[in-house]
């Protein structure tokens, strides 16, 4: 038998081994994709200032290194990356690492909050649906879940603004914190939570539906298993049986899917951050695309992919804890 | 001696169909009663009905299950939970799926102890290790923390047995406990169960379709056919002279209970037809397959009539024959 | 958002090639399946509106036709009101249906073709080919999907074909995983072994022997794929990265957002149109899953 520590170690090692080729793969993929983009940052900056000459643009390209052959650019980028240098953003004229470091906490917070919300409500709804399978709580939640499954998250976010911010005035509709006041302790947490609630809901809604459907199916499948009858034959209370024996088994297929959906979840941040004016990497990526700022875009792509890999490792750990049959290999 | 468990006129059904059509039997303290029949005859449903763990949709429609002064057919869910695992426990057929794959076996055994006894976690763990030792698992201290998938099939069934006897129950219901196991392991597991029965003074309801198992480990046998009891007898009398035509057919179809009747030396006798042909018949369910059927068989299901001490059979023809013998003897 | 979502059936679910008798039973099961029937009816209604849009609303939906920000019901000639530029919302919704359906379909087909090609190749051949393709699939699943779509759209110009390609390119990994799992389990079956023994070529075995058996889950995945493609397209045009020449539901939401606090119907109506269309596709997907895959059906 493999100890928990062994398993943790193996998963972390596997993640570390996986990170490098994935990163290089993404860089190469993106580098060549980005070469196909018509126009570069010099064009955009020139267009904005309206007074650029051919010489100043050439000088700008030379400064950024855009006049070099693609392969040279790629090698330079990889060399810099090895020293944890993501290059400079031509548009903001700041190091990319600095720009990303400013935005990373916002996106991280939003992603974790949305993921938790999706898991908690998804599993809860799925569980309730399975317990009441075929009866009205099940049917009611099935309709709700299907609506969440079919509705764009950003639109749910906009409608939530109309309801909770405009009509009811309960929650703020823009930003990530109250500006101009100094808060501490619980007030600070309450303030942040208020700002976090609606964006998380918008980002999570689709995934609440996905996990609710998965949990319902898995819970129904578990009900027919022999070990559920064994548990009942021990004289356990039905609630204990459901919680201790059914839920944990049902969560195994759910966590498998969570890993596959992380990229989608994080992608949703681009739109949701725009809707709520949330200072995160999603909006940074959008600005980078519109400004043809490739160093910045590549940095955001890399960091968000890294975020997916790391979160995936955390989910793997959870998965390994849930399902001891999976010996990490 | 008062029976440990007495079933009276038990009827179990799904909404669309009745599965068990009013059966009577009893289990004495400390004995092994074998419940025998083909798959689909209602023996497993009967066993699950006794502790009210029927599959979704199935329910007890009528009858009584008397156990320690209580009718389990009408007991409250709470009362049933206090009985399950403590007074009556259950061993299922397939030990791989009967154990929760994501919990350690130690925890799964401790769970039943802690449910029924005021015992600390540490004391429960010590008891579990003793139990694992009792059922013949080597290095019980270490295996406590193992998961079901770390065990072989036979070992898993030993774990199930440890779980079943943990609270020293009066009755263990074993639903085909060795069907899923290797033939060489079967005898070991049944020996273990039988030894524990003697040691702990429990009764065992052994559900099986294997007459070899019945011959070797049961005290009495109850044969079920299509949701009814066909014959009830002490094991010796049953194998010496089965009275129901179905039971005779079964013995013809079964090998291993007599030395000379090995499958290499004797053809397996098959009973023509199938259990399904019993559906919707007004009379004896075995009529369509019975070589001795007479017109009277088709009128109503035959009642279970005593033919000798502790030996009862549900067959019009047999009852008439016995009656004639009695008449001859007395007349 | 790709097709790897919950509607993807268990890989173990292998169906045999459809025989006429089986097909007849399936048609009857389909007619009795309420979610499939409701989904098909809604979808047909949306398709009819999309086809009839030029007849119902002659003229360019981008034209200003009336006073701006008329609320729904305020002017009977414009039952769903007008937007901030005085454009007819009803006309916009009708033309938007064409864009959403066509983009969804095109992206789904692209994602499906790539996914099937990658999944079938990897699943059938195994070995290092499979290894490389699995790595590639994982790579695409690691990059946040929507970011990838944005980058690809930025590479081309925001025209309808480019957007369809971008969404399809981001959506294929889910299909590839599904198809690969199907192929891996079917590869070992007797009828495939027999075909190999007869010396049939790999493409023939893939197309004639395995594909028909792997079809059911792929059909189910297609409707989910299309549903998700419509959602992605909506997000893209909401961010003003859609085709500027087309009236799309997502861009209508984006336009309406500026007036969210007062004229919230401008946001609500196109969003509802998206939700209803995607809902119908998901209903069809769920229904098909029940019909084609009865064992996986939920109680």
Automatic annotation (TrEMBL), chain B:
Limits of the ABC transporter domain: 5-251
Signal sequence coordinates: none
Keyword set, alphabetical order: ATP-binding, Cell membrane, Membrane, Nucleotide-binding, Transport
GO MF assignments: ATP binding
Membrane topology, from the record: Peripheral membrane protein
Xref: InterPro entries: AAA+_ATPase, ABC_Ni/Peptide_Import, ABC_transporter-like_ATP-bd, ABC_transporter-like_CS, Oligopep_ABC_C, P-loop_NTPase
Protein's cellular compartments: Cell inner membrane
CDD domains registered for this protein in UniProt: ABC_NikE_OppD_transporters
Pfam families: ABC_tran, oligo_HPY
Gene3D superfamilies on file: P-loop containing nucleotide triphosphate hydrolases (3.40.50.300)
Protein family: Belongs to the ABC transporter superfamily.
NCBIfam families for the chain: oligo_HPY
Protein name: ABC transporter ATP-binding protein
């Amino acid at each position: 038998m493999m100890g928990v520590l062994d398993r943790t170690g193996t998963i972390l090692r596997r993640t570390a081994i996986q990170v490098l080729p994935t990163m290089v793969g993404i860089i190469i993929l993106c580098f060549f994709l980005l070469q196909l983009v018509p126009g570069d940052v010099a064009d955009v900056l020139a267009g904005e200032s309206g007074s650029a000459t051919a010489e100043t643009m050439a000088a700008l390209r030379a400064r950024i290194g855009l006049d070099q052959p693609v392969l040279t650019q790629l090698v330079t980028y990889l060399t810099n990356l090895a020293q944890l240098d993501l290059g400079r953003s031509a548009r903001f004229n700041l190091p990319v690492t600095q720009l990303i470091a400013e935005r990373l906490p916002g996106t991280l917070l939003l992603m974790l909050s949305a993921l938790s919300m999706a898991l908690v409500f998804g599993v809860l709804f799925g569980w309730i649906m399975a317990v009441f399978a075929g009866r009205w709580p099940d049917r009611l939640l099935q309709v709700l879940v299907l609506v969440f499954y079919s509705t764009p998250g950003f639109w749910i976010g906009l409608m939530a603004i109309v309801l909770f911010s405009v009509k009811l005035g309960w929650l703020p509709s823009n930003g990530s914190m109250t500006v101009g006041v100094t808060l501490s302790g619980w007030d600070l947490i309450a303030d942040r939570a208020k700002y976090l609630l609606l964006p998380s809901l918008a980002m999570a809604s689709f995934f609440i539906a996905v996990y609710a459907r998965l949990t319902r199916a898995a819970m129904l499948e578990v009900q027919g298993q022999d070990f559920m009858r064994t548990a009942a034959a021990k004289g356990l209370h039905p609630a204990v049986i459901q919680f201790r024996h059914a839920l944990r088994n049902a969560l195994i297929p759910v966590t498998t899917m969570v890993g596959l959906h992380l990229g989608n979840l994080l992608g949703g941040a681009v739109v949701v951050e725009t809707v709520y004016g949330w200072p995160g990497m999603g909006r940074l990526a959008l600005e980078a695309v519109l400004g043809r700022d490739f160093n910045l875009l590549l940095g955001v792509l890399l960091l968000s992919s890294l975020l997916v890999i790391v979160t995936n490792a955390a989910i793997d750990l959870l998965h390994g804890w849930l399902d001891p049959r999976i010996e990490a290999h | 001696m008062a029976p440990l468990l007495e079933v009276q006129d038990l009827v179990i059904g799904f909404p669309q169909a009745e599965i068990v059509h009013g059966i009577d039997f009893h289990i004495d303290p400390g004995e092994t009663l074998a419940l025998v029949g083909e798959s689909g005859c209602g023996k497993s449903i009967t066993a699950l009905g006794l502790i009210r763990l029927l599959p979704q949709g199935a329910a007890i429609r009528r009858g009584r299950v008397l156990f320690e002064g209580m009718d389990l057919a009408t007991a409250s869910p709470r009362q049933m939970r206090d009985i399950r695992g403590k007074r009556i426990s259950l061993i299922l057929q397939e030990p791989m799926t009967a154990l929760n794959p994501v919990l350690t076996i130690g925890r799964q055994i401790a769970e039943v102890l802690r449910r029924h006894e005021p015992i600390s976690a540490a004391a429960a763990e010590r008891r579990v290790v003793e139990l694992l030792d009792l059922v013949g698992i080597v290095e019980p201290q270490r295996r406590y923390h193992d998961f079901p998938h770390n065990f072989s099939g036979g070992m898993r069934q030993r774990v199930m047995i440890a779980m079943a006897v943990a609270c020293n129950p009066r009755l263990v219901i074993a639903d085909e406990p060795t069907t899923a196991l290797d033939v060489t392991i079967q005898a070991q597991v049944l020996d273990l169960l039988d030894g524990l029965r003697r040691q702990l003074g429990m009764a065992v309801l052994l559900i099986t379709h294997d007459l070899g198992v019945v011959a070797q480990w049961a005290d009495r046998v109850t044969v079920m056919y299509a949701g009814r009891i066909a014959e009830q007898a002490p094991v010796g009398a049953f194998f010496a002279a089965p009275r129901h035509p179905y039971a005779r057919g079964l013995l013809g179809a079964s090998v291993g209970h007599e030395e000379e009747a090995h499958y290499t030396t004797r053809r397996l006798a098959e009973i023509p037809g199938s259990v399904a042909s019993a559906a919707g018949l007004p009379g004896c369910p075995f009529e369509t397959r019975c070589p001795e059927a007479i017109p009277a068989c088709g009128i109503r299901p035959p009642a279970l009539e005593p033919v000798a001490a502790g030996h009862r059979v549900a067959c019009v023809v047999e009852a008439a024959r016995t009656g004639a013998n009695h008449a001859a003897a007395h007349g | 958002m790709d097709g790897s979502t919950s509607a993807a059936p268990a890989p173990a679910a292998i169906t045999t090639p459809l025989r006429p008798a089986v097909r007849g039973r399936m048609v009857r099961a389909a007619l009795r399946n309420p979610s499939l029937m409701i989904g098909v009816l809604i979808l047909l209604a949306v398709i009819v509106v999309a086809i009839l849009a030029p007849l119902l609303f002659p003229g360019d939906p981008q034209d200003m036709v009336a006073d701006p920000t008329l609320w729904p019901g305020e002017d009977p000639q414009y039952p769903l009101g007008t937007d901030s530029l005085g454009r007819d919302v009803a006309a916009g919704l009708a033309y938007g249906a064409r864009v959403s359906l066509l983009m969804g379909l095109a992206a789904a087909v692209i994602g499906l073709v790539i996914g099937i090609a990658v999944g079938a190749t990897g699943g059938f051949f195994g070995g290092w080919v499979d290894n490389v393709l699995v790595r590639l699939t994982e790579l695409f699943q690691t990059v946040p999907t929507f970011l990838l779509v944005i980058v690809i759209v930025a590479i081309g110009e925001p025209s309808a074909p480019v957007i369809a390609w971008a969404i399809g390119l981001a959506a294929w990994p889910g299909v590839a995983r599904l198809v690969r799992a199907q192929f891996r389990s079917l590869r070992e079956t007797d009828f495939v072994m027999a075909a190999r023994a007869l010396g049939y070529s790999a493409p023939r075995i893939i197309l004639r022997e395995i594909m028909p058996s792997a079809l059911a889950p792929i059909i189910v995945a297609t409707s989910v794929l299309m549903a998700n493609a419509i959602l992605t397209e909506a997000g893209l045009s909401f961010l003003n990265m859609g085709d500027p020449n087309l009236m799309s539901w997502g861009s209508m939401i984006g336009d309406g957002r500026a007036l969210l606090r007062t004229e919230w119907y401008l946001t609500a109506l196109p969003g509802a149109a998206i939700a209803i269309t995607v809902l119908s596709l998901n209903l069809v997907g769920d229904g098909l899953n029940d019909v084609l895959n009865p064992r996986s059906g939920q109680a």
